[in-house]
Design brief:
The protein is mainly β. Helix content is 10%, strand content 53%. The chain has one domain: Histone H3 K4-specific methyltransferase SET7/9 N-terminal domain (Single Sheet), CATH 2.20.110.10. It has an 11-stranded antiparallel β-sheet with strand order 1-2-3-4-5-6-7-8-9-10-11, covered by helices on one side. The longest helix is centred in the C-terminal third of the chain and has 15 residues. This is MORN repeat-containing protein 4. One of its GO terms (biological process) is response to axon injury. It holds the Pfam family MORN.
Length: 153
């Protein structure tokens, strides 16, 4: 069972001295907790779940260069299943750990192809280390994307 300070208790907007803004739920400790939207002064915007001040759970992060991550977060980093789409349209669907690609996934290029040879299998960072079909991991990434997109504040 959660302690009272770890549960969302209030919702309001706050502007930080550096210019970042947060509109969402807070816990008794004064940390972002629950559902909210964080907009950084550089134009980065995160909409989703927070836990004890960090992006945690499902969420959508939009970056100033037009790239986008939709999926699961843990302690402020991409972690779990999700979809990262670069500004040029190249997309990775699969598993992330501690803020980086690490696990099964598939790359889709801007033309809709998966490359030749097919860029699908086990990735460590940008390197495909074992090529194999990963339909289940891609499905989980797409489900995480849908859950992240359905969050509203």
């Amino acid at each position: 069972m959660s302690s009272p300070s770890s549960q969302a208790i209030a919702r309001h907007k706050f502007r930080y001295p550096i210019g970042d803004t947060y509109d969402g739920e807070w816990n008794n400790d004064g940390r972002k907790h629950g559902i909210g939207e964080l907009t950084l002064v550089d134009g980065t915007k995160y909409t989703g779940q927070f836990q004890s001040g960090f992006c945690h759970g499902h969420g959508v992060a939009k970056f100033p260069d037009g790239s986008l991550y939709e999926g699961e977060f843990e302690n402020g980093k991409y972690h779990g299943y999700g979809v990262f789409t670069r500004s040029d349209g190249m997309r990775f669907e699969g598993r992330f750990q501690s803020g980086r690609v690490d696990g099964e996934g598939r790359i889709t290029f801007p033309d809709g192809s998966h490359g030749r040879p097919r860029q699908e299998g086990y990735f460590m960072g940008t390197e495909l280390v074992e090529r194999h079909r990963v339909n289940e991991s891609v499905l989980k990434a797409q489900q995480a994307l849908k859950m992240a997109r359905n969050i509203t504040i």
